[in-house]
Amino acid sequence: MRIIIFFIGILTSFSFLKGEKSNENKHIYILPKSELKIKGKSNINKFSCDFNFLKLENPLVISYQEKENKRYFNSATLPIKNIFFDCGGRQINKDFHKLLNTKEFPQILIQLKEIEYLQESIKACIEMEIAGISKTYTLHVTQTKDNTHNILGVLELDISDFNLESPTKLLGIIVVSDIIEIDFNLSFKEV
């Protein structure tokens, strides 16, 4: 349920800021039309938890240095509050928060470390903190531009990497997979 890996979307959203200066500070606003889904499955069913972007009000402040085709971030952290995920029902929401230990760790932190501009995509390195444990991931994202900027991508995670245990139901008859998928389509603009 570290699907709060939403930070992945944030790391990619900084890619539109490419410029020639060596030190930059920017304010980025993630638009409400953005999508972030955490998808999982059990031995009998699938589930999806959607993040409510209407709850994000403040812009993200980022600071970075650029060298050649890479950008190194000094400050680029996205806090994702667990309570803003909806899995479609009261019981599955309760299970989701129990899995993430929301009472003790109410948010997921996604920190963008660096991005590299490639010919067809952007390679991003992010650090995610879920339930007090941090892991680093590298992923490829796609960027589109219209009136706003969009970052699209998918990240697969193993929740056991964060010492989280998949829930079981009905005395172990229903078992949830440790592998989850985070799909994101983030729309953003510079403030």
UniProtKB/TrEMBL annotation:
SUPFAM superfamilies hit by this protein: YceI-like
InterPro entries: Lipid/polyisoprenoid-bd_YceI (IPR007372), TTHA0802/YceI-like_sf (IPR036761)
Domain of life, per lineage: Bacteria
Domain Lipid/polyisoprenoid-binding YceI-like as annotated: residue spans: 74-188
Protein name: Lipid/polyisoprenoid-binding YceI-like domain-containing protein
Natural source organism: Polaribacter vadi
